[in-house]
Specification:
The structure is a single chain. By secondary structure, this protein is an all-alpha fold. It has a domain of 65 residues. It is 53% helix and 0% strand. The radius of gyration is 18 Å and the shape is flat.
């Protein structure tokens, strides 16, 4: 079996499954992902909030029908909102 080598600038590939090795969880990586969540051009969190507020039934129907690519991941959205609510509750001593 030929050895799988990553392209320049890419993470190493796992030999048993062919996927890229996952990132190590670090403060830098978490901050990068947080910035990416808010600035992703295709599926912005702000656009998702607008769609959920204006057309919630369509968002749910599309998601359940498998048309998920156009929407921000609702589970990431839930985690983000819970995290922000927790942060606000701690900071405001609620």
């Amino acid at each position: 079996m030929p050895e799988l080598r990553p392209a320049p600038g890419r993470r190493p590939i796992l030999p048993h499954c062919g996927q890229q090795r996952p990132h190590r969880l670090s403060t830098h990586h978490v901050l990068h992902e947080l910035v990416h969540v808010f600035t992703h051009a295709d599926k912005s969190i702000f656009g998702f909030v607008g769609q959920v507020l204006l057309r919630p039934a369509r968002v749910v129907a599309d998601y359940l029908a498998g048309r998920r690519k156009r929407y921000f991941n609702p589970f990431q959205f839930l985690l983000l909102i819970v995290g922000l609510a927790t942060l606000l509750a701690v900071k405001l001593h609620y």
